[in-house]
Amino acid sequence: MNNITKIYNFSAGPAMIPKEVLCQAKSEFYNWNNLQKSIMEISHRSKEFIFIIEEMKYNLRILLNIPDNYKIIFCHGGARGQFAAIPMNLIKNVCINNGSNYADYANSGYWSYSAALEAKKYCNPKIFNINKLKDKKKIYSFYERLEIK
Question: Do residues 142 and 128 make contact, with C-beta atoms less than 8 angstroms apart?
Fold first, then answer.
């Protein structure tokens, strides 16, 4: 790894990993924790894997000051998974408070439109397409009508 020119990554998503971490991962890839197998080959039900999860939870609690009365869960998927999680968790509160099943979605491009499409499974999204506005000042009227408490 010493003869590789390092490219600096400043993009969103995956970021640079310190060289020391990469070297340790490389050395442990085929024989993790002297188990004669890779960490990717151990069962998610094994005591070794359970230990890894518990250690991660412990470290997160310390690093982020997470109280003991909070649960830490690990979920697969990326940010796109939140496209469903947000309306599934928040629309219920909106319906209780004002009796509607509507949510406003500002469509500014591919990702926001994808979120609005996913929301259709759980509510009736009112899609506000800001890209088609001739007068961009109208965007502010959209936010002004929101009642944020």
Answer: yes
